[in-house]
Every structure is written in C-alpha cells, then in structure tokens.
Amino acid sequence: MITIDNFKIGSGKTFLVAELSANHNQDFQLAVDTIKAIKKSGADAVKLQTFTADSLTINCNKKHFQIGGGTLWDGKTLYDLYKEAQMPLEWNQKLFNVAKEEGLICFSSPLDFETVDLLESINTPAYKIPSFEITDLELIKHAASKQKPIILSTGIAEKDDIHLAIDACRKVGNNQIVLLKCTSSYPAPLEIANLKTISDYKNEFGVEVGFSDHTKGIVAPIVATTFGATMIEKHFILDKKNGGLDADFSLEPHEFLEMSKAVRDAEKLIGTINYNLPEKVKQNKVFARSIFVTNDIKSGETFSNKNIRVIRPGYGMHPKYLNAILGKKAKFDIERGTPLSNEMIEE
C-alpha cells in the first residue's frame, strides 16, 4: 500500500487533493487564506506547482509559442502564461508550513530537476508529474529516484507513454506509483472524460489509480470514485470573483465541501462484495412474502389455492414449499390469518 505522509492510498478512503494551481494570483496572503479554506472544505491535502517560466519554455513570440485553439488562454504566449501562473519558489517552504499547521498534507508538481531537489530539501511526501511532463522520462526518473510516491497524470498520454513513464519509475527502484486518469482540456467536456478507463488502468498497469479533474462541477469526481479512483484531484479557488487563470474549472470552498461529502457518501455506497444480509436488512425480512392461511380451514381439509396463499408478511413457511403443500391435509382447525407451519400439515 502506498503511503503519502500519513494517508494510505487504496485503504478504502479516497485521497482528496485540492489543487492550488495558479489561483494564488501571486498574492501570498491569498495563497495562505486559500489553504485555510481548503482545510475546512473536506480535503486531505493541498497540491502546489513548483516551477519557473524559464524552466518550462523560452520567451519567444513565434507562432509555435502562441496559444490558440479555443483555450481559456488564447492570445498569450506560453512564457507569459507560465510567468503569470508561477509562484515565487521561496513560497514552497512557507506554504508547506501553513498546510502542516492546518493539518493538511502538502506536496507539489516539480517541473525540472532543480525544483525536484528544492522539494526534496523541504521533505515533500510525494511528487506529482503533470500531464504535459509525462513524456519527460529523465524528469520522472529524477523525481522517482527520491523513493517517494510518484503521481503520474495521464492527460495527454497514450498507452505507450504511460508504460514508458511507469517503467522510468521502476528502473530506479520506485514502485510507489499512482496513475491519475485525466483529460487535458480546460475545462474538460464531460463526454470525453471516459471514466470507465479508471478501472481498466488498474488491470492494465497494476498500480493505484485516481482522477485529476478539469470538468466543471462535482459530478465527475463522484462517478470516478465509483469506478475505483483512490485519489481525486480538483482545482480549488477561494472566490471566482478574484479571477485567476484556472478559475473557470475550479471549485469554491462550498462547492469543494459538497464534493467531499458526496465522495464520502459514494464510498459508503460502494462498500464491499457481500451476499450476506446486514442485520438491519434481516430484520425487515418479516415484510417479505410467506405462506398464510387465507380462509378458515377445518381439520382434515385439503390445502388448496382457495385457503392458502403466498402473501406478506414473512412469518409463515417459505413460498418455495407451496406446491409441495397443496393437496395435503390440515392436522387441525386453522384460523384465517395464521402463518402456515410444518406442524399444521399431516404427513
């Protein structure tokens, strides 16, 4: 079983992770207030993103670096987007401390070797590799070499990419792997989420499986839980009125709390494979059908469809005996409304 800090992944309780992402708006107090709100919203952990724009791309206005295609960020260059989204590296230790004070687990997504090492220096309990880095096998190996749980988001990955990423972890002796089913579209339409893939991931790759959600609302995380997701990651924002690069597909505190409660209810509903009736249900078997005397019967009278029937409640003989009883005779007088039992029947 994989343990992130004190949380056991796959223990039956879904690991609920609130993604701060760029919703700090480069305001430290906003980031702190958001983490405090995350704690009150039912999350188990907060996830940061640890990077600089220069570690991700170059400052270039050529067409290859310009965002288009109907995204939320059309018209920006990659560098400008990442510059706006990054948080100062010195915040990492401070925000880890805030999270710890709030009783939250805190980890992050490092996007280069240096930020892996930075997070290692502040004792991160896990590393999250984002979707767009899943093909960077050297980065994955460097993070996995720290021998802490590796969370791989699969948003833009094809099956071969996933195998390569998992193999990269295992090559450095790290089998603590969680795959997150993800759709790298912002926001992601429900019809392309394909959450059935979650249960297939477990069989195909033999690792723990969760869900990184970019859809609007809370339906997808609940459904993902029922398909076996042991971790849910969802973007969190203190107030959408504040704006933010990821505001459109983030949940405000009351929405995240609603999702948390719904996921916990879904866990109860899933339960275990069990054909034994719970005691509470057994008690209600009295409302099931059984064989009753429905007209007064004299001693020696033949049991027929006119004087016995299968009806509610369940105090009489099991309905499976009806055909065997029909044609037999009563040992003594029996009043209408009496549950039929063996001692009333002549052998």
Along the chain, the helix and strand elements come as EEEHEHHHEHEHEHEHEHEHHEEH
Structural class determined from secondary elements? alpha/beta
Oligomer: single chain
Query: How many β-strands, per DSSP?
Result: 12
Tell me the number of structural domains: 2
CATH superfamily of the largest domain: Aldolase class I
Give the termini distance in whole angstroms.
Answer: 60 Å
Q: How many helical elements?
A: 12
* CATH architecture identity of the largest domain: Alpha-Beta Barrel
CATH topology name of the largest domain:
TIM Barrel
* Cα radius of gyration in angstroms: 30 Å
Q: Largest beta sheet, briefly? A: 8 strands, parallel
Coarse morphology: elongated
**Top-tier CATH class of the largest domain:** Alpha Beta
Helix content: 25-40%
Ranges where pLDDT stays below 50 over 5 or more residues in a row are: none
Descriptive notes:
By secondary structure, the chain is α/β, with parallel strands linked by helices. The protein has 12 helices and 12 strands. Helix 1 runs parallel beside helix 4, helix 6 packs parallel to helix 7 and helix 9 runs parallel beside helix 10.
